[in-house]
Amino acid sequence: MNRAGVVAGIALSQMTMTAMSQDVGRQSLFNGLKADNNAQVSVDNPVQLPQDHAPHGAFQIEWWYLTLLLENLQGEPFNYQFTLFKFARPEMQSNWGDGYVWMGHSSLHTKQAHYFSEKFAQQGTGVAGFEASPLQFFMDNWQWQGEQAEQLLPATLTSSAQEADINLHLSASNPYVLHGDQGVSFKTADGRYRSYYYSQPFIEASGQIVVNGLEHQVKGIGWYDHEWTSQLADEEALGWDWFSLHFDDGRKLMAFTMHVDNGDSYTTGTLIDAQGKTVTLGPDELNLKALETRQVVAREIPVSWSLSIPSFDIAITTSPFKAEQWNASRFAYYEGAISFTGSHNGKGFMELTGY
Amino acid sequence: MIAVSELTKTYAGASSPIIDGLSLQVKAGQSASIQGASGCGKSTLLALLAGFEQSDSGSINIAGQPLQTLTTSQADTFRKNHLGVIFQQFNLLECFNVWDNVAFTARLKGNYDKARQTLLLENLGLAHHFKSPVSRLSGGEQQRVAIARALNHQPEVVLADEPTGNLDEQTSDSVSNLLFAYCQEQGASLVVVTHSGDVASRAQMQFRLHLGRLQAV
Amino acid sequence: MSSLYLALLAQLATYKKRLWEPLLIVVAIFIASAGLTAVTLINTGASAQLNQLAIGDITVSLQVTAKSARSSVTRADYAGLRRQGFDYLVAYTITPDGGIAVDSLALLSRLPAAGTQGDSGLMSSVARQGYQDLNQFYQNTVTPGSYALAGLAIVAELSPQSLQQLQAALPAHLQIFPLTIKPSGSNLTDSFSLNLWAMGALMLLVSVFIVFNALNLLLAARTPLLIKLRQLGISQPVLLQVLLLEMWGLASLGSCFGVLAGAALITKISPALSKIYQFLLDGQFNHGQLSLLTLLLVALGLSLLAVLAMGVIVHSRLRRCLANRSNQVAAFSARFNQRYRFILLLIIGLVMLAAPLIASQLQALLYIGVVLIVGCATVILFMPALLRWLAAKISAVRPLWHWSVHNAVALSQRTKLAACAFFIALTANVGMNVMVDSFRGATEQWLNQRLFAPVYVYTDFAGDLSQQPDVPIPLLARYGKDVRIAGQLTELRSFPEGAQFQSRLLLDEVAADAWSEFYARQGVFINQQLANRKAFRVGDTLAIPGETGLTERKIIGIYPDYGNPKAQVLLPESALITNHEQVSAYAAFANVQQKEALGSWLSVVAPGSRLIAREDLIEQSMLVFSRTFMTTDMLNLVTMLVAALSFFVSITLLVMDIKPQLLLLRSVGVSAWRIKLSLFSQYCFIAVSCALLALPFALLLAWLLVNKVNRFAFHWTYPLMLDPLIILQSLLIGLGVLLVLMALPLGRLEARFYSQQGAL
Description:
The complex is a heterotrimer of chains A (355), B (217) and C (760).
Chain A: H1 3-14, E1 61-72, E2 77-88, E3 100-109, E4 114-122, E5 128-131, E6 136-139, E7 142-148, E8 151-161, E9 164-172, E10 177-178, E11 184-186, E12 194-211, E13 214-231, E14 237-247, E15 252-260, E16 266-272, E17 278-281, E18 287-296, E19 299-309, E20 314-320, E21 326-327, E22 333-342, E23 346-352
Antiparallel strand pairs in A: 1-2, 1-13, 2-3, 3-4, 5-6, 6-7, 7-8, 8-9, 9-12, 10-12, 11-12, 12-13, 14-15, 14-23, 15-16, 16-17, 18-19, 19-20, 20-22, 21-22, 22-23
Chain B: E1 2-9, E2 19-26, E3 31-35, H1 42-50, E4 57-62, E5 65-66, H2 72-82, E6 83-86, H3 98-109, H4 114-123, H5 139-152, E7 157-161, H6 169-186, E8 189-193, H7 197-201, E9 205-210, E10 213-216
Parallel strand pairs in B: 3-8, 3-9, 6-7, 7-8
Antiparallel strand pairs in B: 1-2, 1-4, 4-5, 9-10
Helix pairs in contact in B: 3-5, 5-6
Chain C: H1 3-17, H2 20-50, E1 53-55, E2 58-60, E3 62-66, H3 75-83, E4 89-94, E5 100-102, H4 104-110, H5 121-128, E6 131-133, H6 134-137, E7 151-154, H7 160-169, E8 174-178, H8 187-231, H9 236-281, H10 292-324, H11 338-354, H12 361-393, H13 399-414, H14 416-450, E9 455-458, E10 475-485, E11 488-495, E12 509-510, H15 514-519, E13 523-527, H16 528-534, E14 541-546, E15 549-559, E16 567-572, H17 573-576, E17 582-588, H18 592-605, E18 610-613, H19 614-657, H20 659-667, H21 672-714, H22 724-742
Parallel strand pairs in C: 5-6, 11-16, 13-15
Antiparallel strand pairs in C: 1-2, 3-7, 3-8, 4-5, 4-7, 9-17, 9-18, 10-11, 10-17, 12-15, 13-16, 14-15
Helix pairs in contact in C: 1-9, 2-8, 2-9, 2-19, 8-9, 8-10, 8-14, 8-19, 9-10, 9-19, 11-12, 12-13, 12-14, 12-21, 13-21, 14-19, 14-21, 14-22, 19-22, 21-22
């Protein structure tokens, strides 16, 4: 789940600075905004694939989020995040555009460098949008091109991040994972905050990354998220700590804690076995605790965490690929690769917002 | 009156003096004409007599004033009060009419007299041109204005450089007559540099300037 | 040998003895050309900067646009190019009211993120520059099909290779083209732009006079030789050709060297200019992109045109003078009929009467041109006559003084064109100084009145700081919202409620009981800009869009709003406090301790806010003001200097002409220094006469600039302040420049008898 999209959406709507909230240490991301509740995330209308790969116009915010842990032939890491966000902006509907704003983030980390690009475009202008057959998401010359109608994967991803050009083939062998109840993911105990949320954590990727004229043949694994909702973008939602983990034994874990104003934080997740079978975890079953903070762009960021799921004998400690994994976008957040050790080893991605 | 003694002048770069031990005496009311080949030093002599230039040696006394002892400012005052100069090119003040041109020197000296000037101009045949702009006059008329200007303030010495050089024969005659008669009448010493034998012959003393010295003709 | 060749040889032979004549002609034209080049380069550089879209650090100077009027840039073109990776293209169009609508989202992508959460820097700067979003523009019946895009701005600094790549990818009907968008942001930059244009036009006018004056002087100098050549049997047409050939040769020489000198000067002072522009326009000064070759070709072409024009003017006069063997030939008669003077007086009267009828910016600028030309006609027709009348009053008791005045009259008759150039420069200089001084005075007065609090807060804080519970001292918020009133984009701004603030609003017109109507939300105050744009008056009704639709309000007062390019309406605070989009500023009645506390609080609550004392705000505003006009002051001075130099050259030539007369004066006992003093007094006489003639025209010019040009260009005016000190200072500077030049030594004045006096 990518909370950054919510952040961005709110900021776009308001074009305002954030204001200090009551919650010490957290900044409210949705100043003045309310969830529009135009469409309802409801178990009565569960996620249906492949049709739900496509954009959902009725919902306020939506994102397609890919994280990849890649290596070149020399074993050098190339950790890549590609995200497309869509925001319903009916007041922008005009003879120019459709009233939907797309935002793209493309972030590549190597050990030494970070390449980051951010784009904005309006649906209906032809610059950004979606086509069903074959399935294609595009924003300028960034493109997620599916090979079959309606099918998200296999696909070719073409994108760039500053001086880096990315061209990857993506495929997955296991079925998609629906989070929560048939894809309805509750962010708070009372369900006030929720979204449609499914993932494909079994992505295999290979291709080329050209950085500063040097071409690298890369391959690795990845995780894909797709979320959409009208019950999340609210001024009382403060921030999130989110993890996607690839266990060495083939399992996957999605875990996050959501923080709300005037309410308790809520932790939930999904444990996925190697065949794609899922178990939804509640706050009693999943513990997330920040261990160590570091100064990143003059902010105190908890870069190391402990994560435990006692019922599955999972107790791990995460550490970041590197400390400085800050996306200095117009709506900044922490997003980067991690590795973990403890009862189990593996690697993944971490996203921290609201800091 | 003019008294020149052993005047010498050599220009820088020249191999020999242009005026070489020249002496000349012209009493009040007397006239002298100086002829000579082109470039023999006639204009230089006039310039020395007028105090426009300084000699290398010798003395010049004009109306009792030793010129070589005068400062620039004193020389200016001297010219204003004692000297009348007639140029070949007239050098009239073009912004003035005839009357104001002629009156200029007298006003400078402070002896402007309307009646006297009127008479002078009438005698010079300029009675109908008092208000005429000088640029509208013929060459002869302009020269007569120049002569009138040189005489109007009653100088003791009149120096004339080719006063009839630009005039036809008839006008030359009448202008020469006027000039010589007036100087004699006023008791002014007149030195005329001229190419014209006719003009030269009217002077009481006639000289030829040759090799820097005057030879009586 | 052809007679033309022989005549030319004879002409050139005079250079050996009288080289100063053609040299001074060349110098005069050189000065005019250098001045015009310098002003043109400054203008194109500054205008280009003004007209450039600057997004962050990127200067946008190119765009993709349709090759011809028959085709246009479509949305599909835009998408197609961006999909190919040319994501630096940003679609824009020019709205019917001359505004700019852009694809704001595409602009968002081009700026690096500030790194702060939800940075609104770009949108506010886009809004500040007065740009609309394309979504706002393409509404209802306005579609990209019915109202095409103007182009795709290239928001990037592209290398030649990148440009080539783009060029290769363009569809056949599109091209890469320079982009000039005029951001109608600050009123000061608009003023600046207009000033630059005016200075350029002024310099051109002055240069025209200077060139013609120089050619006229050459004609006067050559006439005696031409007469002699005519007598020797060379035909008139050949003589005219000879004259014009020499004129063109000298004009070309002077103008080409002038161009090089002007360009070199600007290159040299570019760093200094850059500093000014960096502050003023937030960008670099790049002196004009005109190529030197272009400038040189233009100079040669203009020289040719001037000479040909001269040929047409003097043709018949020359013919007559050659026939009459008259030395007095010039392009213009020395004396004019009383008839011409009478006609001129009539024209002056008509021109004065026409002033109130001016109804547009273009008319105002044309009218100014007419005024300057009428002024020049006054100089030509009246100055010599006036001087002659004055001269006649001078007694001849002091003969040298008498001669000085009369000679001044003669000089003035022969320097009419140079005097005209000087007159134009002086009139413009004084007029613009009066205008700027009035503007400055009005602005300072207005600032002092409107800024009522000791401290002001400027911030990007999203909410309302004044409503924060822990604010240390009360803050008076200035609420704002932008709406369209009668199709005009208008700012709604709040004005504090309280009788103590009433005196702070300077009003040009006000209705009876205005304030009670204001507080009762029945009436509103509007600024001059709105009143003049839409011809609103006190008593008219305004339909203001609100949340529930349009609300009618009576206009109860009109106030001056200097420096604001936009229309504005003032509403009571209560009308906007719950209904605003932004808070543009806060006023705080804070003492020193309170100010510190406020500062500390702001650093936590709204970091990046600026806390400015009233005095500092006024000082900063006036500093920006001064710097804005610094360039035009400089250009004014350049024009003044050029005209003065030309006048100096003219007079020098003429004085050399009368050197025999000066030698005559020496020979009759007038000392050299007295002659020089006399000449200097003559220059003073002419210059002061010119200045006195220029004064009424200068004041008229100032009035026109304030009440017509400014009124129609920017829709607001300010009171014209006639400060005698400013007027005197401007006159003295203009005169001073000229007289300092004139005081240069004229060379030795020695009496001589030589028969070669003509060679002197």
